[in-house]
Amino acid sequence: MSFKSYVILMGVVLFAGSGAGETIRTVEREDRVFQAGPGVLISDKAQEGVDTDVWPIPAVYYREGRFSIFGPRARYVLHYEEDDLLVGATAQMRNEGYEDDDSRVLRGMGERRATLEAGLTVRKYFGWGRVTAEWTSDVLNEHKGHEIELLANRWFNNAFDVEGLRMLPTVGVNWRSKQLNDHYYGVEADEARGFRPAYEVGSTVGLLTSLRVDYPLNDQWNLFSSVSAEWFDGEITDSPIVGQHYKLTAVLGAMYKF
Fold it and tell me: Which keywords does this chain's UniProt record carry (predicted)?
């Protein structure tokens, strides 16, 4: 993995911080929150033969008023209502790419780089949990595509009757545009070889699942872990450079509240 990819992947750990648990009430507060600590990232991509990466990485979360940064994502709340409707502008890094020396199957492929995406998030809170719809689009013209996600999740406090233990299971679906899929999982005609035929990927609908767990050691220290998986459909998994039906990211660590 290149140094650039490592730096971008550093941000993935940050997402496991408290930012993902924000509510309208935290948006209304003007106090500043900063948390940091050690973390470990495990990244398992779908491309054939690419090794699972394990990295020690700092974990950081920052929020002040309507603005927050958590991992590869930044958000500014544009609008919220008392019935717990939130609309926000979102920016995020996507690191789904590779270099041709990452595996034998990828040799001779052009480098697929990480990119910056921006979009819009709409979140509605209900008595049972929350539903989030999000649209993002490439702003650096790397893959020139789009993605739409629809997620449902709920916080469980004092899970399994353990004081302070919080769990956030999430399920959802996503739509990925042809441009996004073809860039990271397709094979161009000039990249084709005898063992790697040209392949064009269309738009897809996939399944998203994740589980986050938080546990406070005391008023300052908090343990966290998060595992997320994206399950691909046949348009992607039939590609000659894809070796599995999913990509997986896991993070764990501890954060100190300053």
Answer: Cell outer membrane, Membrane, Signal
Q: How confident is the model at residue 181 (pLDDT cuts 50, 70, 90)?
A: very high
CA separation (Å) from 164 to 7, 22, 76, 167, 252? 32, 17, 29, 10, 17
Whether the per-residue pLDDT at 2 is higher than 80: the answer is no
List the Cα angle 220/221/224 in 5-degree steps.
Answer: 140
Cα 228 to Cα 80: distance, rounded to the nearest angstrom:
28
**Residue 29 lies in domain:** 3-257
Query: Model pTM?
Result: 0.88
Q: Look up the CATH number of the domain holding residue 115.
A: 2.40.230
Contact in structure between 117 and 149 (CB atoms under 8 Å):
no
Q: Is the separation of the CB atoms in 143 and 183 below 8 Å?
A: yes
